[in-house]
Amino acid sequence: MTANLDVKSGRGDYRTIVGPGGLERLGEILNGENLALPRSIVTDTTVGPLHGRKLAAALGLDLLELPGGETNKTWATVERTCRHWLGNGLDRGGSALAIGGGIITDTVGFAAATYLRGIAWIAAPTTLLGMVDAAVGGKTGVNLPEGKNLVGAFWPPRLVIADTNTLSTLPARELRAGLAEVVKAAWINDRSLLDLAPEAIEMGYDSMSPQAWEALVARSVAIKAEVVAEDEREAGRRKALNLGHTMGHALEAATRYERFLHGEAVAWGLEAAAILGRRHGLLSADGEKELRTASRKLGERPGIADLDAGAVCSYIAVDKKRDADGIAWVLPTDDGVVLDQRVETAEAVEVLRELQKG
Ligand SMILES: NC(=O)c1ccc[n+]([C@@H]2O[C@H](COP(=O)([O-])OP(=O)(O)OC[C@H]3O[C@@H](n4cnc5c(N)ncnc54)[C@H](O)[C@@H]3O)[C@@H](O)[C@H]2O)c1
Ligand SMILES: [Zn+2]
């Protein structure tokens, strides 16, 4: 019981294997894919004790446990990883396996992109966000004090193993946050997936069947794979994946990345985009309601009522997607999204105020 999705990439296509128990069958899966066992496994200090150590012991592999969290997605952690590999004699022909959330796959993928000018790596995402978003698409990188993801590389893994059993240990809040990206993906290209996200929230990990988790992840991966196959380097279509992210990033930055999980900020951002879509005549009132309801069904998230809307929106101006004509937003339509919509900061402030009123 697994779903295989092939992701096209200019640097070599790779497969994403989704389903329960992938890590237990790692040796077998690698054999089937004609890939050698990795030489090193890298994880964080939370996922190590939960999943990494067992895997490393079963395969007799070296395990590096890095400190987790956005504050450790840095050059320093990349250096530590590379020096660890060097100390363990990992050579150019060897590969590494990253097991963890988006922080680990972004950091280890970037280390793999630069170590000895690039080695192969395998991604084993263990958060829902990692499975449906971060581990697929080839973007790797770390943060600078000036902002998130400011250095990085397109360096796709050779294989992605999304073992949905690992979600059993993921805190419910992290699961809900990951579902915001599922709602985003659903709006872009698979509206029937919209119903699965609230079902997953209501049931929680344990009550939803392994098949349903597999389907939810596989269908989300399929949307991301389709988008990045068309536009790996974000010249056009890939921007669709930024739906909900312009206001989401501003909310995260304005609260110093302390209040919201990324997905929670994106859930607010999806509502902001829905309001803007309607205001710009791109989305019907029903469509606005549908997207906002889907976002609300993601459950409780930290509030925004106390925030200064003007101060939050001042962070939009530093968004990377800015170009000469102002800020380009991705806005929802009744059957998908449109890219590069110009939104004045003053209008964004009005929309945020509307959102604050509830
Ligand atoms: N490369 C991309 O295309 C891309 C896309 C989206 C997001 N990202 C990046 O992903 C990062 C966020 O990823 P994330 O949300 O996975 O965060 P994360 O890696 O910090 O994981 C969230 C928390 O859950 C813990 N955890 C992970 N798996 C677990 C498990 N199975 N059981 C229990 N605990 C577990 C982690 O230790 C961490 O504390 C951000 O830095 C973001 O920029 C990258
Ligand atoms: Zn995101």
Summarize the structure.
With 358 residues, the chain is α/β, with parallel strands linked by helices.
What does this protein look like?
- The chain has helices spanning 26-32, 47-59, 75-87, 102-114, 128-134, 172-189, 196-207, 210-230, 245-254, 262-279, 285-296, 309-314, 345-357; strands spanning 3-7, 14-19, 40-44, 62-66, 95-100, 120-125, 139-144, 147-154, 159-163, 322-323, 326-333, 336-342.
- 46% of the residues lie in helices and 19% in strands.
- The longest helix has 21 residues, at 210-230.
- The protein is built from 13 helices and twelve strands.
- The mean pLDDT is 94.
- It is globular.
- The chain is of the alpha/beta class and 358 residues long.
- It folds into two domains: 3-230, 3-Layer(aba) Sandwich (Rossmann fold); 243-357, Up-down Bundle (Dehydroquinate synthase-like, alpha domain), CATH 1.20.1090.10.
- The strands form three sheets. The chain has a seven-stranded mixed sheet with strand order 1-2-9-6-5-3-4, sandwiched between helices. Strands 10-11-12 form a three-stranded antiparallel sheet.
- The structure holds nicotinamide-adenine-dinucleotide and zinc ion.
- Zinc ion is lined by residues 133, 181, 245, 262, 266.
